[in-house]
Design brief:
Helix content: under 10%
Number of domains: 2
Radius of gyration: 29 Å
Strand content: over 45%
Oligomer: single chain
Number of helices: 1
Amino acid sequence: MADKQQSHAFIGNGKVYFTAVKNGVEGKPFWVGVASAAAFNHSVENESELKEYHSGKNQTWDKSEGDKSATFSLTLNERRVEAMQAALQAKVTEVTTGTVSAEEHEVDAIGDILFLKHKNVSDVVITDSTTATPLALVEGIDYTIDEKYGTLEMTHVQTITSPIKVAYSYGTATVMKPMTDDVDYYRIRVNGLNKVGQKDKQVVTAYRAKLSPADAYDLIGDDFSEMELEADLMYDEAEEAMYEIVKL
């Protein structure tokens, strides 16, 4: 009788972890960051009914179970590299530091915008293509530069022989190329907690989740950006299920 006085209402919070599986090998789990919503969704398709006709009422005599499927949906509010890699199905590479000796760019008018091949640059030296003695360009007179973005704008070109040649050093950067990943599937784990009622905890694990790329990747906005993810859950023979719920 005492249990009837207990509330089992539910408001879910918790952490979501992904583990990438490539060529059958599990990587290291990572926390995807702040997520405002996460849910498992279920559906049944291709159900069929067997009708009886001997009574004259044509009622359902039996019914097939149909094809059962489940998906996992997640709303991300952070841009952690690992989470973005999963959301955008991206390959990620790390650019190490280096130098460029003579990167060429054509210029012919004041206001020309030039993008260097690398970002996060320093020690920039620019000369033109004068044959005998190349002209050294002066920052603030001949050009302005945003070193973090690797962007040049020409402010003087009348006495400059194109192309200009840019020498510089560049720093580390993370390069992400969406829609190119080679992940077989992800293992998803949610360490959840209930903020009301019994305030119990639970662990939910999806064994094999095939992620679809996020529908949108917001770049400019006045509010916190969201990335909506959805994954089809695949049946795991060893576990004899798509996912499990463990109440603690």
